[in-house]
Specification:
By secondary structure, the protein is of the alpha+beta class. It has 2 domains: 1-33, no CATH class; 34-91. Helices cover 46% and strands 13% of the residues. The chain has helices spanning 10-26, 56-71, 78-87; strands at 35-39, 50-53, 89-91. Strands 2-1-3 form a 3-stranded antiparallel β-sheet, covered by helices on one side. It is elongated, with a radius of gyration of 20 Å.
Length: 94
């Protein structure tokens, strides 16, 4: 395959990989793998709760419900909320 990207072909390979990634992303196979995760232990709690969701908003709803039911928190204090947001991990392709 003739290339105008690079003499040695390395850029051709990167270009083809990028095109494949775009095709996967457009078919939603890549975006569906992305998710957000949280675990209470990641903010120093002695709690085995963990949750995951496709969106951060959905995850925050799960966390708030857990905080209310398991930790008797009617509202999450600002300093705890900062810890929670800092401990949320995004996994997969995004």
């Amino acid at each position: 395959m003739a290339s105008h990207y690079a003499v040695d072909g390395r850029c051709d390979h990167l270009y083809l990989c990028w095109k494949r990634f775009i095709r996967l992303r457009e078919s939603h196979k890549v975006n569906d793998m992305a998710k957000y995760e949280f675990a209470c232990k990641d903010i120093g709690m002695q709690c085995g709760f963990s949750a995951e969701a496709k969106t951060q908003d959905e995850l925050m709803q799960k966390i708030a419900q857990h905080a209310k039911e398991a930790h008797n928190m009617t509202e999450i204090p600002p300093e705890t909320l900062q810890k929670v947001k800092g401990a949320i991990k995004k996994k997969g392709w995004f």
